[in-house]
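We include this case.
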Amino acid sequence: MAHKITDSCVACGACLPECPTEAISEGDIYKIDASKCTDCAACVDACPSEAIIPA
Protein backbone atom coordinates (compact mmCIF):
# COMPACT_ATOMS: atom_id res chain seq x y z
CA MET A 1 0.00 0.00 0.00
CA ALA A 2 1.32 3.41 -0.93
CA HIS A 3 1.45 6.42 1.35
CA LYS A 4 -0.24 9.76 0.75
CA ILE A 5 0.46 13.32 1.81
CA THR A 6 -2.32 15.19 3.62
CA ASP A 7 -3.23 18.87 3.72
CA SER A 8 -0.93 19.18 6.76
CA CYS A 9 2.01 19.30 4.33
CA VAL A 10 4.02 22.51 4.65
CA ALA A 11 6.11 21.78 1.52
CA CYS A 12 9.37 21.87 3.47
CA GLY A 13 11.11 19.31 1.23
CA ALA A 14 12.35 17.04 4.02
CA CYS A 15 10.76 13.98 2.42
CA LEU A 16 12.18 14.43 -1.10
CA PRO A 17 15.72 13.14 -0.53
CA GLU A 18 14.41 10.24 1.58
CA CYS A 19 12.37 8.62 -1.20
CA PRO A 20 14.44 5.94 -2.94
CA THR A 21 12.04 5.72 -5.89
CA GLU A 22 11.54 9.47 -6.43
CA ALA A 23 7.78 9.02 -6.00
CA ILE A 24 7.30 12.42 -4.35
CA SER A 25 6.65 15.53 -6.43
CA GLU A 26 6.82 19.14 -5.29
CA GLY A 27 3.95 21.60 -5.16
CA ASP A 28 2.00 23.71 -2.67
CA ILE A 29 1.25 20.33 -1.09
CA TYR A 30 3.58 17.53 -2.14
CA LYS A 31 2.15 14.41 -3.76
CA ILE A 32 3.19 10.76 -3.81
CA ASP A 33 2.84 8.77 -7.03
CA ALA A 34 1.23 5.55 -5.81
CA SER A 35 2.57 3.62 -8.81
CA LYS A 36 6.16 4.43 -7.76
CA CYS A 37 5.75 4.19 -3.96
CA THR A 38 7.15 0.97 -2.49
CA ASP A 39 5.74 1.60 1.00
CA CYS A 40 9.20 1.87 2.58
CA ALA A 41 7.94 4.71 4.86
CA ALA A 42 11.26 6.59 4.80
CA CYS A 43 9.31 9.75 4.08
CA VAL A 44 7.08 9.25 7.12
CA ASP A 45 10.01 9.49 9.52
CA ALA A 46 11.40 12.54 7.70
CA CYS A 47 8.17 14.57 7.75
CA PRO A 48 8.20 17.18 10.55
CA SER A 49 4.49 17.93 10.19
CA GLU A 50 3.37 14.27 10.25
CA ALA A 51 1.56 14.85 6.96
CA ILE A 52 2.39 11.47 5.40
CA ILE A 53 0.03 8.60 6.16
CA PRO A 54 -0.81 5.16 4.71
CA ALA A 55 -3.18 5.48 1.76
